[in-house]
Amino acid sequence: MNRMLSGALVFVAVFLILLGGVFIVASGVDNVAVGAVLVIIAALLLLFVYRSEKIEASRPKVMNQTFNINMGGSGQLQQRQMACRSCGAPLADKDLSVVSGGVVAKCPYCGSVYALEEAPKW
Predict the structure, then answer these.
(1) CA neighbor of 5 nearest in space, from 37, 61, 45
(2) Sheet holding 113-116, edge to edge
(3) Is 104 helix (H, G, I), strand (E, B) or coil?
(4) What is the domain partition of the chain in residue ranges?
(5) Which of 54, 57, 60, 89 is most exposed, with the fewest beta carbons within 10 Å of its own?
(6) For every one of its 122 residues, what pLDDT tens digit does the chain have, with 9 covering 90 and above?
(7) What one-character-per-residue DSSP string does 11-62 give?
(8) What is the value of pTM for the model shown?
């Protein structure tokens, strides 16, 4: 429920409580009955607004966050052709695989297998 609607319902409930109080103070059995009904209606309106706010507060809210992340390195980046350490043959992406969190290269020409290590940036 939006804030405007809940504010309007609270305003109507307060008005009904005041009007019901005027009817209760006035003499006569009929006036007391009408005043009691107005106060009960106001109490139900206030209970409805309270419960609606409580239910709305308990629902999880979806928040969208966007991040601007620059994944550049600390120095100049350049693309280089990978070559086998044993025979010097060019290696393609299909010759690389990830094993136990490390990158492993297997040469399709000589069959040698070795782990690739990242050089430190300092």
Answers:
(1) 45
(2) 96-99, 102-106, 113-116
(3) strand
(4) 3-58, 83-122
(5) 60
(6) 688 999 999 999 999 999 999 999 987 888 899 999 999 999 999 999 999 999 888 888 887 878 777 666 666 666 778 888 889 899 888 888 888 878 899 999 999 998 887 777 66
(7) HHHHHHHHHHHHHHHSSSHHHHHHHHHHHHHHHHHHHHHHHHHHHHHHSPPP
(8) 0.49
